[in-house]
Amino acid sequence: MKSGRGDEDHLAAGGPARHVPVLREDVMRIAAPCEGGLYLDATFGAGGYTAALLAPANARVLALDRDPAAVRAGEQLVRDSGGRLFLVQERFSRLAEAARRLGLTDFDAVVLDVGLSSMQIDEAHRGFSFRSEGPLDMRMESEGESAADLVNHAEEETLADILYYFGEERASRRIARAMVMDRAKAPFVSTAALAGMIARVAPAKPGEIHAATRTFQALRIAVNDELGELVRALAAAESVLKPGGRLVVVTFHSLEDRIVKQFFAARSGRGEAASRPLPGEAARPQPTFTLQGKQPVLPSAQEIRVNPRARSAKLRHGARTSAASRGLDEKLLALARLPHRDLKGRLHGANS
């Protein structure tokens, strides 16, 4: 089954392993898999959503995961599918390219379960968890710049911005200053060393989440460009859905949810005043999605009791219209980036 994904403290901390697909019943109710349908699970994980999408007779699924370990673990499900499951190692921002390579188009639904899986958390050598000793890595694909590279080489201002904007860490400057001071004596190479430093310089108050939670979230987001990947994936999903196809997105923290909420608002015209364009003003583009029902959909109290990692989950969804897809939204991309600094160190950008 697909691993549960959940709030920052449970996920970053690496609590007890729970391989429970979050909001699965709601996801399947909206995706509505049916006989002979074509579906895309852009975040395969442990395959929980994929297995449910494959349940109807002759349904086909293209499943993606950027983590090669998840793809290897899914090989048995591929064999059991009888040729109906295509499992590909790929970032979900490139879902359209993956579909094109396989000659697949006009999907009935695209599902994205955004964030980190408990399988990744549970493997200490991946460096996502601060509850167990492991290398300070955090790379989903095990290649490119690691969290240790970032912590040991980035400038203090950049580190502070990462912690503040991607982790919403109020003590970002204090922690970044301590990173730079401590790394001058010895580089950070383990999760425990970094978590211990954070607990020392910015201890959590009783009853609060672990002091390192927001920092670990921020570094993970920066290392894997998670917000940029999400923006590009939403635009790609829009391009591969057939009219009436559903886009279903489950997020686990406010930064992700803000992007998804604004994407659906912009693509549906929700919140825009109905008015005729002024002379010479370009006509507003036609909505590419319609939104139904009260959103976001939240987990029930019962689901949270069974799977505490579900407690921060939010589900948003839309149905594709026949309007032409719009491509990338620069305003949303701005939400996924750090604001830039000018030569005098002043911040500029959407988040400043």
From TrEMBL:
The keyword S-adenosyl-L-methionine applies. It catalyses: cytidine(1402) in 16S rRNA + S-adenosyl-L-methionine = N(4)-methylcytidine(1402) in 16S rRNA + S-adenosyl-L-homocysteine + H(+). GO terms for cellular component: cytoplasm. SUPFAM superfamilies: Putative methyltransferase TM0872, insert domain, S-adenosyl-L-methionine-dependent methyltransferases. Pfam families: Methyltransf_5. GO terms for molecular function: rRNA (cytosine-N4-)-methyltransferase activity. InterPro entries: RsmH, SAM-dep_MeTrfase_MraW_recog, SAM-dependent_MTases_sf. It is found in: Cytoplasm. Its EC number is 2.1.1.199. Keywords: Cytoplasm, Methyltransferase, rRNA processing, S-adenosyl-L-methionine, Transferase. Residues 271-290 are annotated as: Disordered. It comes from the Bacteria. GO terms for biological process: rRNA base methylation. S-adenosyl-L-methionine binds at G47, G48, Y49, D65, F92, D113, Q120. Signal peptide: none annotated. HAMAP family: 16SrRNA_methyltr_H. Belongs to the methyltransferase superfamily. RsmH family. PANTHER family: 12S RRNA N4-METHYLCYTIDINE METHYLTRANSFERASE, S-ADENOSYL-METHYLTRANSFERASE MRAW. Specifically methylates the N4 position of cytidine in position 1402 (C1402) of 16S rRNA. This is Ribosomal RNA small subunit methyltransferase H. It comes from Methylocapsa palsarum. The lineage of its organism: Bacteria, Pseudomonadati, Pseudomonadota, Alphaproteobacteria, Hyphomicrobiales.
